[in-house]
Design a protein that fits this description.
The chain has 229 residues and is an alpha+beta fold. It is globular. It contains four helices and 13 strands.
């Protein structure tokens, strides 16, 4: 497997918990205690990243006003994967089993996970496992590749994957939904990954339809139970 994600092999169109801080209670407690011994860094010790800012010019090509999610295309394990939802509020990066099956990745270890995910569905779900894959953002010559841990979930979704706090931290990336941009440092400069509003709206429409269908089925099931009492 070519871990630098280039050239790509093909194109695929298509949360708290998990093992991000460790897959045991002891590991998660140790992660929390790290802050107890934290020493404030001096200026000389801080990373010298370029300044990331968002200007009115970043709205060029963006349809406003809007409340669209930030949905991008990224390269994962040599595949250009569309419908990647950027969510900087959750604790694990997610890949869906249906998408991973299409990729047919080989040479990467798949590890079981015992820590459930919460807030992902109506109830806690147990992931299938975790896999570390190369993720690339940007285009040559300003492409950046990192090895990212993904939690694999066997659930239906309008998205192929979700990039969350761990991946954004590794890329030192800043997401701004209003500007439909994800920016991250590349050397002394800043690379920009643009969201796709059309894809974001199609995903939203599909989510709403699926939720309405699920609500009707649940209501029908409840009514049937009452009628059979």
């Amino acid at each position: 497997m070519n871990e630098d994600n280039h050239p790509t092999t093909g194109m695929i169109h298509m949360i708290s918990g998990g093992a991000t801080d460790g897959d045991s209670g002891r590991a998660r407690k140790a992660h929390g205690r790290k802050l107890e011994n934290f020493e404030i860094s001096r200026g000389a010790d801080l990373p010298q990243d370029p300044v990331i800012s968002f200007e009115p010019e970043d709205l060029r090509g963006v349809v406003t006003p809007h409340s669209d999610a930030l949905v991008v295309t990224a390269t994962i394990a040599n595949y250009d994967v569309a419908r990647i939802f950027i969510d900087n509020g959750s604790s694990v990066n997610v890949l869906f089993k249906s998408m991973l099956d299409q990729m047919k990745v080989e040479g990467f270890e798949f590890e079981p996970v015992s820590t459930p995910l919460y807030g992902f569905a109506e109830h806690a779900i147990l992931p299938l496992g975790q896999i570390v894959l190369p993720l690339s953002l940007g285009t040559d010559p300003r492409r950046v590749t990192k090895m990212i841990a993904f939690t694999v979930v066997d659930n239906s979704s309008t998205y192929n994957g979700i990039l969350e706090r761990p991946a954004l931290k590794d890329f030192r990336a800043v997401a701004f939904t209003y500007h439909q941009k994800l920016k991250f440092p590349v050397g002394k400069g800043v690379e920009v990954l643009c969201g796709d509003q059309k894809v974001a709206r199609r995903c939203y429409e599909r989510i709403v339809k699926e939720e309405e269908k699920r609500g009707r089925e649940q209501s029908h099931g409840s009514l049937s139970s009452v009628l059979h009492l």
